[in-house]
Design brief:
It contains four helices and eight strands. The protein is globular. A hairpin with a 5-residue loop joins strand 2 and strand 3. With 138 residues, it is an alpha+beta fold. The chain has an eight-stranded antiparallel β-sheet with strand order 3-2-1-8-7-6-5-4.
Length: 138
């Protein structure tokens, strides 16, 4: 019985550790959104426009830390974001599980993604907009 308990604890610890292994290698690459959900103000027109635009976007985190954002949305807001993100860089804070995008001299302050892993699912939370995106690496 004691051996079984030790085995169960070991397996649970291993599973939790495995689920939390998000690093730069995991982040690097091109991502598409499978599903975007507003966690706040979901009924507002601006939020709906953001959710729709982010849903139609691709996010590329290159190994050289350059960032490419593109959206198939024709909304003015999304086109402004595409322009804003031109020539941006990204960094990953492993402790906070955050991807910060912007310019070094400005503290990478254009957008912050909190990265969560739920089993095999990778979720990016856009902190400021409170939009959660279920992601798929392409």
């Amino acid at each position: 019985m004691k051996k079984l308990l030790i085995l169960i604890v070991f397996l649970m610890t291993t599973a939790v550790t495995h689920c939390q292994n998000i690093d730069e290698t995991t982040i690097t690459g091109t991502w598409k959104v499978k599903k975007a959900t507003a966690l706040k103000d979901a009924d507002k027109a601006e939020t709906k426009e953001l959710v729709s635009g982010f849903q139609k976007a691709t996010y590329t985190f290159n190994a050289d830390h350059s960032f490419i954002f593109d959206s198939k949305s024709n909304s003015k807001m999304m086109q402004q974001l595409v322009k804003m993100f031109q020539k941006n860089q990204w960094i990953f804070d492993k402790k906070k599980k955050q991807i910060k995008v912007g310019f070094k001299k400005e503290g990478y302050s254009n957008i912050t993604f909190i990265v969560k892993q739920d089993g095999k699912k990778i979720i990016f939370l856009i902190e400021d907009a409170q939009i959660e995106m279920l992601m798929k690496k392409v």
